Amino acid sequence: MITTTADGPVDLITIDRHERRNALDTAHLVELREALERALARGARAIVVTGAGSSFCAGADLGNVYGGDFRKELYATLSTITSAQVPVIAAVNGPAIGAGTQLAIACDLRVADTAATFAVPTARNGLAVDPWTVRRLALLAGGGPARSLLLGCSSLDADTALNHGLADRVGEVADALAWADDIATMAPLTLRYSKLALESLLEDGADDQTLDAAFEACWDSDDLVEAGRARAEKRQPEFRGR
Question: What separation in angstroms does the CA of 99 have from each of 22, 59, 119, 206?
Answer without folding.
Answer: 11, 4, 9, 25
